[in-house]
Amino acid sequence: MSRSMILLALLLAAPALGQTPEAPAGAQTPDAPAEAAPEAPAAPAPEASAEPATEAVETAAPARRRGRDDTVHIAMRWGMRLHLDPAFDAVADDRNHLAIEIAVDVRLWHRLALGLSFTGSGAQGELYGHDTAWQDNSLFLAAVYRHRFPGLGLATYGRLGPTVHWYDLTLGGDLGPGEQIERDPWQFGARAAIGLEFWPISPDYIRRMGAFGFGVVLEGYYDQAFVGDWTDGGVDPGPFDPSGPGWSLGVISRF
Amino acid sequence: MTRALRASAALALWAALCALACDRPPGFDRPLDAAEPLVLDRHVVWPLVGQPALFTLDPATMATRFDPLPARPVLSAVSPDRGGLLVLDDRPALSWFRVDAAGPEAVFEAELTGRYGRIAFAPDQRRAVLFHGGGSAGAVLQNPNQVAIVDLEAGRVVERTLRSFGDVPRAIVVSAEAAIAGSPRQLAWALSDRYLALFDLAAPEAEEVIVHLTLAGDTRSVAPTEVTLAEAGDGLAAFVRASGADDIFALGFTDGQPGVVPRPYLNQLPAGQRPSDFAVVEVEAGPRVFAVEPALPGVSVIEPTTAGRVAVTSDLPVSEILPFEAPREDGSTGHFALLWQTGAAGVVFADLDALEEHRGRALTPLVIGGALTHVRPIPGRRAAVARSGPSRVVMLDFDARTATPLDADSPIQSLIVAPEGDAIFLHTELGSLAALATDTLIASTVPLTDAPADVERLLHVPGARRLVAVLYDEAHGRVVVSPDAELSPEALRRRDGLFLDGVFDR
Fold first, then answer.
1. SS3 for B422?
2. Is residue A34, in this structure, part of any structural domain at all?
3. Are B145 and B165 in contact (CB under 8 A)?
4. H or E element in which residue A209 lies
5. What pLDDT is attached to residue B221?
6. Which residues of chain B have pLDDT under 50?
7. Looking at chain A, which residue has its C-alpha nearest residue B21?
8. Residue B12: its chain A contacts at CB < 8 A?
9. CA-to-CA distance for A139 and A107, rounded, in angstroms?
10. Based on the structure, what is the number of domains in chain A?
């Protein structure tokens, strides 16, 4: 119990540690430059010339427009998913297991986007000498807030929204009908995630290619399931909360 | 940038901590290895040797419990009142549980120096004796004459070695607590070849008394096989039948000192030629010993004080006696017995109260037309149920002198008589459960599963009024539970994966 509380505290503290406060419009901070500068990162510093200043403004304007044109992000992430509830020890040998996610964001307005993702995760183990299997598939509808640091090729983002999970639990292994327990309930839940994107392509290239780009992404998230009833067929394995944190690493592209 | 890096570092740290914190309980990696189920008053308990733990099912509510044990159980026994459970483990140590409506609750634990294979409870559940009995193992050097005297109320264990005269205790019989010479005693008899060791559980350190059944130099094997304790004459007496002996040995007590095991006097009661079974019953005329004599064939009625014997011949071969009580027509309680022999074609109903006086007229033979394999009296009735052949039961009514056969569709696996005597339960090889009303002989049956099922055993849990059919399942336990008063498919409750109940909470 206490161990779970410590882990939960760590989990809650992690977003706070990594929080990147959004700068107010027009404010200048070391990590969040002013709006005008990041929207035209690729524009080289204008050299001193005799040309009128208005031309320099005209040169920067298309770059700013192109930088805002990326409307779709597609990401594929994979990483580890952790179950905080000790009950998961009955399901698998390790509470960490692999999770893979495919996500699509569509920018709606300014820094806000609407995201939809599919996550699949699973684990296999052994309980009392017989095989077990666990699978968790979920759909995640998210509101995405993305803040860019174009000069650094970085962006941070946060995602928050509801999920719906389909679980598949098998205790007993390949013992034949009637000799194993299978559960496939579905449950609603919610997920909160923060991430860091790195766009390694040079600003010049971005300027030439418009909105297109690809990069890598690191994300930490927490899945909260609204736990339902696991009883089926008369046997009640007991309370099990599949909620837990996870991290993932992946690739992302935008266009 | 700095904050982003700090966020990543925090995430990595947290993930590492989480990974380190997840220690899986080692019991999940071991098999359950369930031992034979034990029937208590309201529960069925499975010792899970591999965990180690006790798994308890309340068949009335289908509630389950998983109680970890400190070590692997090697021997478990239920007290005579079905309200307690004594578990010996491989440390070695014992754990005593009282089982109430909620399930087993540990009362005390005690370490042991010896390893024991058998348990003999006192009838009042206050004490128990652990002895080797040929079933213990695990020690480099065994002392089969070592016993442990357990005071279950005080939580005290005394281990000691009984003196030996060339043999080891084959069985131990414990009497109810009784006053002998003014002192409370709880005597125990250890049965060995040619002698008995008598010791007092109320004075566990007191030196035992050895009773030799043969003369010095007599090399015959006279092995006591049966001990019955009864009030006779001046007080408590033990009646001992030994293989190879024609007499019943009666051990009585006249005096004794507190804290010292009373020395019994030995009396030999003539019981004909090689009695095969006996019972001591307090009939209307006083305590009598009824010894079955296959060579006669018949039964001897012996007055224990005078050793007077009346031999009554039976028309059918007999070798066993099953005494029971049942009401008479006038409402009084009568004492009766079934006399029978495996393989015989019939059973004899004996009115023990009238046997000494009326002799052969007190015996009622009933021929069933087949070879008997089992006979059981039906409590509260002058009736019995017999098994003849693999799939036939015969209801015997000694008032009407009828023997009514009933045939099952497949071999009968087990047969249970309800404690009240109002019903008989059985299950068949094809996985059907049947109940037979003893008064009307109307049978009701129900298939335990949709398909023929392998029923490992049928249990009756009297306090819960439930029948529990334990089905074969090497993995996680499978049972079908039915009310004993109603057999119907709707009332059946089946549990597959029973031992996984509550597994997330272990």
1. coil
2. no
3. no
4. helix A203-209
5. 81
6. 1
7. A3
8. 247
9. 19
10. 1
Binding-face residues of B in 31-50 toward A, CB within 8 A = 31-32, 50
| B422-506 is a CATH 2.30.30 domain | no
- Which residue's structure tokens are 């120096």? B113
Q: Is the pTM of this model over 0.90?
A: no
Nearest to B253 by CA among B231, B222, B223, B286: B231
Nearest residue in A to B24, CA atom: A89
**Cβ within 8 Å, pair A7-B476:** no
Closest CA to A247 of B57, B7, B480, B77: B7
Q: What is the four-CA torsion angle of B169, B172, B178, B184, rounded to 10 degrees?
A: 50
* Parent domain of A220: 71-254
Residue B434's region, left for phi above 0, alpha for psi from -120 to 50, else beta, is: beta
Query: For B246-293, how does the pLDDT look when each residue is reduced to its tens digit (9 = 90+)?
Result: 999 999 887 778 888 988 988 899 998 999 999 999 998 889 999 999
- Is A137 among the domain residues? yes
CA distance A82 to chain B (A): 7
Which of A93, A128, A171 faces B32 most closely, judged by CB atoms? A128
User: pLDDT (tens digit, 9 = 90+) per residue, A100-132?
Assistant: 999 999 999 888 999 999 999 999 888 888 888
| Amino acid letter for position A160 | L
Question: Do B476 and A171 make contact, defined as CB atoms within 8 angstroms?
Answer: yes
A250: left (phi over 0), alpha (psi -120 to 50) or beta: beta
Distance CA A120, CA A135 (A): 7
- The tens digit of pLDDT for each residue in B206-244 reads 999 999 888 878 878 888 988 888 887 667 888 999 988
Q: What is the amino acid identity at position B28? A: F
CA separation for the pair B220, B223 (Å, rounded): 9
Question: Left if phi > 0, otherwise alpha if psi is -120 to 50, otherwise beta: which for B302?
Answer: beta
Q: Which of A14, A154, A234 sits opposite B4 (nearest CB)?
A: A154
CA dist B23 → A4, A88, A240, B20, B291 (Å) = 12, 11, 17, 7, 64
**Contact flag A89-B495 (C-beta cutoff 8 Å):** no
> Hey, what amino acid is at B289?
V
Residue A78 confidence class, pLDDT cut points 50, 70, 90: very high
A28 is a domain residue: no
Q: Kind and range of the H or E element at B407?
A: strand B402-407
Query: Quick one: DSSP state of residue B177?
Result: P
Contact between chains at B502 and A237 (C-beta distance less than 8 A): yes
- Contacts with B53 from chain A: Cβ below 8 Å: none
Asked if the Cβ–Cβ distance from A130 to B18 is below 8 Å, we say: no
Q: Residue A78: which CATH number?
A: 2.40.160.20
Assembly ipTM: 0.77
Q: What gap in Å lies between CA A175 and CA A127, rounded to an integer?
A: 13
Domain for residue A154, yes or no? yes
Q: What is the mean pLDDT of chain B?
A: 89
CB contact under 8 A, A90 and B506: yes
Domain ranges of chain B: 286-407, 422-506
Residue B466 is which amino acid? R
